[in-house]
Fold:
Amino acid sequence: MLTFFGKYKFFAIFFLVLSIFIISIIYQIMKPTEVLKIYQPADVSAELVDTTLQYVKKYHTIADFSLTNQNGKTITQKDYEDKIYVADFFFTTCQTICPIMTDHMADLQEKLKNDDAVMLLSHTVTPEIDTVAQLKKYALEKGVNDAKWNLVTGDKKEIYDLARKSYLAAKDVPFSENDLVHTENFVLVDKKKRIRGFYDGTDPKAIEKLLHDIKVLEKEKAP
Structure:
């Protein structure tokens, strides 16, 4: 018996390796492709959605905008055309969650620095304080790459409407001259201006998940 196995040892190993290879190929073929959800207002907590949109179940996209970045340049959706991007809401004088969120945005910037398909967009919720000069100072302090990451200011109602009606990232409080009640959410937006994910911008594990999902989104084939 030992002589038999010794004689055919090479063939046994060959067929074992071949079997493993074939099984691996079959697994890869049958393994479902990971696809990110397309979020609609109806999928999100009602407190984060404007009452006019709470029951919308399809076709939601980010509205057109015109804001001003840290260099005094007008930023519109044209600047994010055919790009995947991560958006958030912050203010430069925030001493609670914003510094953590900004550090995580800076981490994303570093990890995605060679990926031209992905950009970042941070909206101030206190535009009366966060002037272009203030945003520029903050950008320099945080190492913002102007080609990758825009910090934007502008009309407060427009920013409020973007937060509530587009990005679904601010709590339901009436518009006023007071600060907007924004969340810690980072919002992942695809090339068609659709929301594909929400991530806790203060949680390192959520940031890792976001990086993973960006890669998934980049592999997604256009319908």
Observations:
- The CA atoms of residues 132 and 208 lie 31 Å apart.
- The chain has a mean pLDDT of 88.
- Residues 41-219 form a domain with the Glutaredoxin fold (CATH 3.40.30.10).
